[in-house]
Amino acid sequence: MFKNFGAKNILPTIILAVLLTSYALLLAHPINLVTADLGRHIKNGEIIWNGNFNVLKTNFYSYTHSNFPTTNHHWLSGLVFYGIWHLGGFKVIHIFFILVSLATLFIFFRIATIKSSPAIATLVTLPLIPLLLERDEIRPEAFSYLLAGIFFWLILKIKNGNLNPKYLFILPILQIMWANLHIYFFLGPVIIGTFLIEALIEKNSLLRKKLSLTFLFSIIATTITPFGINSTLAPLTIFKNFGYRLVENQSVWFIEKILPNPNYLIFKIIFSVLILSLIARIWRLKSYKTLITDIIFTLGFSIASWFAIRNFAIFGLFALPLISGNLVSLFKVKTVTAHWPERATLALLILTVLVILSGELQTVYPKAQKLGLGLENGNIAALDFFKENNLTGPIFNNYDIGGYLIFGLPHKEKVFTDNRPEAYPAEFFEKTLIPMQEDKETWNERKDLYKFNAIIFSYRDYTPWGQTFFARILKDPEWKAVFADSRVVILLKNNELNKSTIDKYGQSIEIKR
Description:
This protein is mainly alpha-helical. The chain has two domains: 71-234 and 248-335 and 353-363, no CATH class; 381-505, no CATH class. 58% of the residues lie in helices and 4% in strands. It has helices spanning 11-27, 38-49, 54-57, 75-115, 118-132, 141-159, 170-181, 187-202, 205-221, 229-237, 252-255, 262-285, 292-307, 312-330, 342-358, 381-388, 402-408, 426-438, 440-450, 464-473, 499-505; strands spanning 395-397, 454-458, 479-484, 488-493. A four-stranded mixed β-sheet has the order 1-2-4-3. Strand 3 (479-484) and strand 4 form a beta hairpin. Helix 5 runs antiparallel to helix 14. The protein is globular, with a radius of gyration of 25 Å.
């Protein structure tokens, strides 16, 4: 895979190494488990490893809807995360995620060099990195990005005659894994199907036959999960029962009015470059038939990103080879011999690394975070406090902190809710969770129904209902804060059961908002 970076000119290899180093450093920031999904994924893996498979098909973790049917479409990712965490803790799982992310970028970079050159690929990669960092949390979708790159790279190599078509048999095998790792598994058949459409239009009979069989077997592979055909249909049905509006699922034109983010502008610029360069390329060639895959990928991933910002990363990865291919075609630069002042490029990349290491990147890019591996210091202090003081539920908690509590609460305790909208009836969010936080009377009615004894709240919850509830509950004499750090507060019901803990800790709590 390094043949374009030969001994005669080692600078492209060094440039790629420094580029990947920059990306690794930007991914190496402390994990905030409080609002992450990672804790729940690790717990999924632990429970499945110990032989309890109820977690596969039911809500399982909540005392409000423990038996609500759901499809745990990322269960295999949980096993992988648990195994790595069990071996080396959060630092090792963080390193694993960074390595997967680097492998993904490298594969898409190589596809870009196939379509253009190392020089152009490097030029295009730099402005795309912020879009990749939009999904810098350790999630199962990292496997989807890696597998999408493998599918794309392998089929492209076969199409170009650089790999024997027999290697297509690998894809249905990988598809079985993908269907159990993450819900974006449908991208496998989409990528295969896109190249199949192109083979049909170009009348490439050999590739058409091979891809047709691969496509069919890959569709069948999506059913080889604990859920059968329901797993295959999950991408089409998951939003039918979604009662909680997630930021990541919002359109660009909606969310940019509410939450400032430099990546919205970056996305618009990259999108414009991608569309304009593709149009110019089609106009120059006077034909679109040889660009079917480019057109479908461009339109598909662009539309997906405009409608849900969670797709910025996958858009950025595919935009890398697409833009690179468009540019090399427009400027008639030979794929392997394209050259620019590589020493200047290397100097720029080294400067970027130094800026990242100095921590000054945050001044120009607010989303940049501090360097570090593993958990933030004191990130599980709230969980330790709960267990060390033998506190008990029933617990009321907000949406964001659910995965954190699932990971660290004593086994007997369950959560009120967690960050899986598909695992609860939609009306639970619409008629219970949100109204309880918005309206005092609804809260008073439901707190007696559920008999809450503790509240564990992630108070950086910037939803209107979250802020309303938090401001109100701090003034409620029925509840006393006994723990607070920079992210989490624990309040106990002011009763005899909690008296000793309240007397010990209730007077020394200072909440910084």
